[in-house]
Amino acid sequence: MAKQPMLKFVKIERDMPEKRGATIRNKDFDEIYAEFADAKAKEQASRCSQCGVPYCQSHCPLHNNIPDWLRLTAMGRLQEAYDISQSTNTFPEICGRICPQDRLCEGNCVIESSGHGTVTIGSVEKYITDTAWEKGWVTPAAPTAERSESVGVIGAGPGGLAAADMLRRAGVQVTVYDRYDRGGGLLTYGIPGFKLEKDVVMRRIKQLEDGGVRFVFNCNVGADMPFEDIREQHDAVIIATGVYKSRDLRGPGAGAAGIVKAIDYLTASNRAANFGDKVPEFESGELNANGKKVVVIGGGDTAMDCVRTAIRQGATSVKCLYRRDRANMPGSQREVQNAEEEGVVFEWLTAPQGFKGEPVSAVLAQKMRLGLPDASGRQSPEIIEGSDYEEPADLVIKALGFEPEELPTLWGAPELEVTRWGTVKAEFTSGRTALPGVYAVGDIVRGASLVVWAIRDGRDCAEHVLQDFDRQAAIAAE
């Protein structure tokens, strides 16, 4: 009888890939975690209990078949593990790096609740796909037959790219339009290299190009090309623009120099640090934290990206102001821990009320306490009277989240229906909008969300686009 390769969580403790020391990693933009060695990946995968009802899988937006590819990894059958992993996930090596596993798959691991420590699912997923790239198992789309239908995808972020990949593999002619000079969207310009090195994203873009996906960069729809022209050129259009409009701060002095948007700050850093681009705002110091006292306002993953970037740029101090406590922050707890190790100071239960100086020299802050729950069930922060103080700052970064741009106005398409939040109104799962042949996926439908949800939306939408094409062809043949 073959030796049981699984259920070793009682004998083998949870172990993560080695993390580079904080005083070393906080000086560069390389990823902070080392790669699992083959033996360690097998060992950690073997801890899986192979649940009859795998909560890791059900809590994954893509419903990845996690227990099966863990078992195959433990058995040394890595190519089969990769085949299963990529069958439900277009970009497993990206999800393995940036998904908040502590809130999704790993956070719902059964052996975690039994006190044995969760399986390191994300690290194994990353290892499987990185090995697949190294071994040449990852190949461009090679459809068995070409189709005549053409689809235009607006936005080269994770949702748009996932849809493009699925459609191209089915033989559809796909063109992706994007406002930036490189593909990837926030994967490229929003997420820092220490979480997602940019060659990981660029090789996926090349794979799509090699598979026949056409990219049109530096194309700002509505300005450089009318939305109607894209509709006329294609049999279907998928809107996957994401949400890029930053939520703003109010209060005295909010317009002072030195108060910047997180997306502008991170884009400048990614261009300069990861691609070597010449960025005037970075070189002038406007979007550079070097030698400055930095205050980041917000408690999500974007705020964590900003504080950790500022440390690496050589800020003299970095503080994060968040109006709730640690337990109620929306960002990943793992990211908070990494930030603290690297020298970031968190000021919990603290909110800005205004700003001092021109350019900014301090944040006028007040301490908060948590009161009654709000409509979402979270406790609402309340100001503690008399707790005002000044937090010195040479650079203030607003990381308060993102909202959708006004696409009907920007694109001259008033018939494109939006919700009261400004997101595109689209059918659940299919992504169909009220406009014939127009679909929408990802954050522009959901509001600011996770990369893994955008991938799920893109894949689901592509499946329904194909179904609609087949239905139209059947009707035409009658």
Description of the molecule:
Its EC number is 1.4.1.13. InterPro entries: DPD_II, FAD/NAD-bd_sf, FAD/NAD-binding_dom, GltD-like, Helical_ferredxn. This is Glutamate synthase (NADPH) small subunit. GO terms for molecular function: 4 iron, 4 sulfur cluster binding; glutamate synthase (NADPH) activity; metal ion binding. It contains 19 helices and 16 strands. 36% of the residues lie in helices and 15% in strands. By secondary structure, it is α/β, with parallel strands linked by helices. It has three domains: 22-135, Alpha-helical ferredoxin (Fumarate Reductase Iron-sulfur Protein, Chain B, domain 2), CATH 1.10.1060; 150-243 and 404-477, FAD/NAD(P)-binding domain (3-Layer(bba) Sandwich); 249-401, FAD/NAD(P)-binding domain (3-Layer(bba) Sandwich). α2 packs across α8 (121-135) and α6 runs antiparallel to α8. The model has no long low-confidence stretch (mean pLDDT 94).
